[in-house]
Amino acid sequence: xxxxxxxxxxxxxxxxxxxxxxxxxxxxxxxxxxxxxxxxxxxxxxxxxxxxxxxxxxxxxxxxxxxxxxxxxxxxxxxxxxxxxxxxxxxxxxxxxxxxxxxxxxxxxxxxxxxxxxxxxxxxxxxxxxxxxxxxxxxxxxxxxxxxxxxxxxxxxxxxxxxxxxxxxxxxxxxxxxxxxxxxxxxxxxxxxxxxxxxxxxxxxxxxxxxxxxxxxxxxxxxxxxxxxxxxxxxxxxxxxxxxxxxxxxxxxxxxxxxxxxxxxxxxxxxxxxxxxxxxxxxxxxxxxxxxxxxxxx
Amino acid sequence: xxxxxxxxxxxxxxxxxxxxxxxxxxxxxxxxxxxxxxxxxxxxxxxxxxxxxxxxxxxxxxxxxxxxxxxxxxxxxxxxxxxxxxxxxxxxxxxxxxxxxxxxxxxxxxxxxxxxxxxxxxxxxxxxxxxxxxxxxxxxxxxxxxxxxxxxxxxxxxxxxxxxxxxxxxxxxxxxxxxxxxxxxxxxxxxxxxxxxxxxxxxxxxxxxxxxxxxxxxxxxxxxxxxxxxxxxxxxxxxxxxxxxxxxxxxxxxxxxxxxxxxxxxxxxxxxxxxxxxxxxxxxxxxxxxxxxxxxxxxxx
Lengths: 298, 301
Fold this sequence. Notes:
- The structure holds 2 protein chains of 2 kinds.
- Chain A is mainly alpha-helical.
- Chain A has 2 domains: 16-84, no CATH class; 88-292, MetI-like (MetI-like fold, Orthogonal Bundle).
- Chain A has 14 helices and 2 strands; from the N terminus they run αααββααααααααααα.
- Chain A has a two-stranded antiparallel ribbon.
- The radius of gyration of chain A is 24 Å and the shape is globular.
- By secondary structure, chain B is mainly α.
- Chain B has one domain: MetI-like (MetI-like fold), CATH 1.10.3720.10.
- Classes of the chains: A mainly alpha, B mainly alpha.
- At the A-B interface, helix 1, helix 4, helix 5, helix 6 and helix 7 of A face helix 1, helix 2, helix 4, helix 5 and helix 6 of B.
């Protein structure tokens, strides 16, 4: 029942009477909020400054003049290593990589979860444990064989290769999400349907899928964030035409040739972070559910 | 098997093997891409492969070199210990404190939660880029404090080989503390109110109730947090690469960056594979007992 683990409503404590204690609580909460917000504020404010402004001002000084120059440069012409093509191509590489891997891993995970929860067979629990362990392996231990295999398959350094990698290593997570969600569907309903003669797909279509929307959202959000934010697979398995946005951002901020343009770095960082940030802001509740799934037993 | 009987007449034998059929692709994929590949890496680690893999058995020579003749590996291990202990301690302290504060029926709780958790949505690369700029030895924090009037202030941790590892800790805590907060908050909300009410009737003060009753009952959450954070720590790669590239020199190397450097940049496949195997075994030693107890718990529940 790990599903109902996250109910973050209604706290405890003395209630809203104003006292010194309450003031201290709010002061601490606000101080923490500042700690978490300042880096983003610095990024945003740096990205709208000119380099002149950056050299004369400081991290949090207000820009004397707002300019979007850094943004257009970051998107179109910034030098990523030796290629001065901006982030845009890499951004689309990430999109081309994320969309198919999220769809594939979520759909397969949903089917797996359905079997693991409602159609168990001898050995299925053992397989589930083996799969679960796959969530935890440090990926360093599969990097070398994977890069040799991608080479053999002829999809080394391609977006297709990255899609394969992200789909396969996403499956343990998506399967876990759906399995844990589907075990909460009462067994009696499934049994009754079976007695009425409903089979595998009919039960899936009529009983399971209609209640699955929340877990699909959790899985899609989790996978989108994970794959968009991935760096390890991106840096190991991609080539010049398929590098995702995280690899490009790293190459940009670590380029040591020429004058360092911190405003361009920060604009590029926001561009790379914006998609997942938007996902989080729009659907925070589901994002948190994905994060804590499996970590807390309900 | 009454189920098979009721199903049988309608759909025939296919229905019986359908569940297995559905799992088959995943089964094959996991068998090959997880377990097969681990075995493959183990094999490579027992050879003398350099730029290209060869499969001639060479014993445990790579592991021996790793632990006895490679000072850089010990730097990586030491850094991992420094990083993990500080990272885990700060994340748990910050996460727990914020969770308890948020649990005091505060206004705008959702608003605060959203702020504390947003770094989790960002890539470590984005986080690293931001902190790299904030900690910039010339124009970053140092300049800010100097302009505030402390003209002698210096802050150059990022390029100081003794201090650089702490910049990685700082950025990692900033990114992950919100996650621990979410775990603790969920744990707090799951505690039975009646125990606390009883303690209040007995005249115990709120801090005392938290310290003596509530926090001890969060033991499982502590355990989950430590396991998950250690796991993040052992795998940490992105943040090190973007913040310090493992430098200055190899002062902030960690096992994951070490493995990458040797396997992919220096063309020492077998040596890199050996370091990957050590990482793998360390993670398994941590995870298997945890998973075992978790799974046993779920089944009994």
